[in-house]
Amino acid sequence: MADRKQVLEGLREELIERFDRYQAHKEQKGGPLDKDTEDQSTELANDEVIEALQQEAEDELRQVLHALKRIEAGEGDACEHCGEPIGEGRLQALPYTTICLDCAERQ
Ligand SMILES: [Zn+2]
User: Fold this and answer.
1) Cα 56 to averaged position of ligand 1 atoms, centre (Å)
2) How far is the CA of 89 from the centre of ligand 1 (A)?
3) What are the tens digits of pLDDT across the range 9-43?
C-alpha cells in the first residue's frame, strides 16, 4: 500500500498548510476595537468559525500522523482494535483510518 502512504503524506502537508493559514489569520487580529457593535459580532462569529476549522485540521492531522506511524511500523492495514485487516475499499475512502468498519460501527 505504498499509494496510501503517499496520499497520507500529501494530506499531512495540506493540513499543516491549512493549520498555519488559520493561525496566521488569528495572529493578524488585535487591531483597535473601534468598529460598531454589528461589525464586532460578525468578527466574533468569524473567529469562532476559524477556531473550529483549525481544530478540525488539527484533529485530522493527528489522525494522519497516527496512521502514517502505523504504516511505518508495518501495521497500516491492521485494525487497531481487533487486529483484523481493514478493507481495501475502506482504506481508499478513508486513508487515515486505523480501525476496521466493524469496530467503527461498534464505537
Ligand atoms: Zn476492528
Assistant:
1) 24
2) 15
3) 999 999 999 999 999 988 887 555 555 656 667 77
